[in-house]
Amino acid sequence: MNKNNLILYIGILIFGLAAPYIFPAFKVQLSILCILIVLAITWNIQGGEMGYNTFGNILFYGLGMYLCASVQVGMFFPLAEWTESGGEKTFVHTPAQFFQGMAAGLVVAAIVPTIVAGLIGYAILGLRGHYFAICTLGLGVAAGEISGGIEIIGAGQGFTTPPFPNVGSLEARGEFFYFLSFLVLVLTFIAVKAIYTTRFKLILNAIRDNEDKAEAMGIETMKYKIIGWMISAFFCGLAGGIMGGLVGYIDSTDVAFDGREMGVFMVLMAILGGKGTLWGPVIGATVFHIFKEGFWTFFLGWQYVALGVLIVVIVIYFPEGIMGWLREKYPERFGEVVDEADRKAQVEIK
Amino acid sequence: MDFLVFQYPMITVQACLDGILLGVLFALIAYGMALQWGVMNIINIAQGDLVILGGYIAYFMYLYGIHPAWGVIVAPIIMYFVGIAIYKLVINKVVDRDLFISILATFGISILFMQLMNFAFGADVVLANSGYGTTMLFDNNVVLPNSKIFSAFISILFAVCLVIYMKKSKLGRAIRATAQNARAAKILGVDTEKVYAATFGINAALCGVAGALISITFTIHPYMGLPYTIRSFMIVIVAGLGNLPGVAMSGMGLGVFEEFADYILGTEFRIGSVFLLLVLILVYRRFKLSRKREYLK
What we know:
The complex is a heterodimer. Chain A is mainly alpha-helical. Chain A has a domain at 29-157 and 169-258. Chain A has helices at 3-22, 27-50, 57-74, 79-85, 95-124, 129-147, 172-196, 199-209, 211-216, 221-247, 252-256, 262-273, 280-298, 303-317, 321-329, 340-349, and strands at residues 159-160, 249-250. A two-stranded antiparallel sheet of chain A has the order 1-2. The longest helix of chain A is centred in the N-terminal third of the chain and has 30 residues, at 95-124. Chain A is globular, with a radius of gyration of 21 Å. By secondary structure, chain B is mainly alpha-helical. Chain B has a single domain, classed as ABC transporter involved in vitamin B12 uptake, BtuC (Orthogonal Bundle), CATH 1.10.3470. Helix content of chain B is 75%, strand content 3%. Chain B has a two-stranded antiparallel ribbon with strand order 1-2. Chain A binds chain B through residues 47, 53, 123-124, 126-131, 133-135, 137-139, 141-142, 145-146, 148-149, 156, 260, 264, 267, 271, 301-302, 304-305, 307-312, 315-316, 319, and chain B through 43, 45, 90, 93-94, 97-101, 103-105, 107-116, 118-119, 226, 230, 233, 237, 266, 268-269, 271-272, 275-276, 278-279, 282-283, 286-287, 290, 295-297.
């Protein structure tokens, strides 16, 4: 890591830590931004590096959300009675109970989706192309439909997560969730950055470029695909757990397994930023979130229309994303050696 | 657990008949999907939304006092032009690109359509009442609405007409040639661009027919599109591309499966079971093919 990069990272870290005090009114939005970036980064492991375009990472996100909330409630109170009472607060978590529950819930929310990803991955990562994409789309929707029929987690009525306890300050809730999601974001980024410097990333890229050849070279592609998916699931589950606490209410198809919103957002953000790059998803998620919030506020009701148009436009006109565009414009900055004569020749041909 | 299906054998007959009549409709939609998949190598996620749009056309005719059965003629004509418009605006830019690009682009169209229909027609579950009455079978133990029989009949009629058209007409031959080898067809003077547009239009028209029939026999709702896409995708992968009897059989099989899932698991798990079945079929095929070291292409 050279000096410039170090300064950049420290700057971002300081900005991230100071952000809730600079923009006190936007704490929730900033937390959601962190979660979105985490989702985009984890999607990029599949879609960008491995070439397996999944719509199914929403499964782990929703699973994490339900698990975290269930553990948080179930550790101290009977879960069935809690969901039955709905919004009425028959049970109140003390601060200690809330934080203990949250911690235990997040651990479960990270581990169980990882195991699920391993099991499902073994079954479906052998599919390729269209089949994988549509299969994962089906998985996400099926999970939403099925969890909407299970009574103990609230069925179609929804599940209220424990309200944040009264710890003195009114700002505490926003700050708690912001720093929690920022922590997860930093962890995800560091983990993914570390992974991308190893041979593992090269193997993923080999799978993307030509899986048969990678296999012929003696790489056990299945093993690496599953590990890649498990890494994604781990962070998706964590992000889901935090998001559940942040939103305060879990609905099977509109919040948790929201394939129509979150499931598409993560794909779109990664593509917008530039898939297959480390910074692409981060930039894409930030741009997308700012655009989305602006648009959602001014064109209330038309947001899905805008979303549909946005998907089509991004996919058709910017399939390489922002990073891809930058790379084309300033190849030197990406460490590509550009031959001046070659470039001139290309310009002349054009 | 005591299942109604086992206690009253007549319910089994009812479910089978319902499922077959429903499955014929699924097969019609799946035929459209197989057509465009084979010709353009595109999986259209918006397929189900085109179906629902066709349903709303018939529903509107019903609202304005025209018998909704005429929707079977009007909906495909309108939907043909909608299909051509979608092709010109979006699909022709993604035809020869990465497969995922086309899936995502049609997913965008699907969301767009869903929401526009929601604005235009409201989020209520509606149906167009055809007033066809019912037929009783087996000592009044099995009830079949005539509208279902009508819809199955019309679907078969359209499918047969289309098959003959594809075999005999000039455009049909061009479409089949393009499906076999687009480049060779181009060399031999087939305007593939036109063929693609026509294929997409025909697919949309088929969706329109199916939608009009669905609005008569079942209910329609702006957000109900995706399950139809998934069903037709499932039927096509089970049957294989270009296998028409297979499409018909697996369509009916899926219809029967759904009716039984409805009776045994409960209506709230109906859509979920369809999606799970898709995953199971794909997983089954993966393990079956991996024994021969192949994979789905």
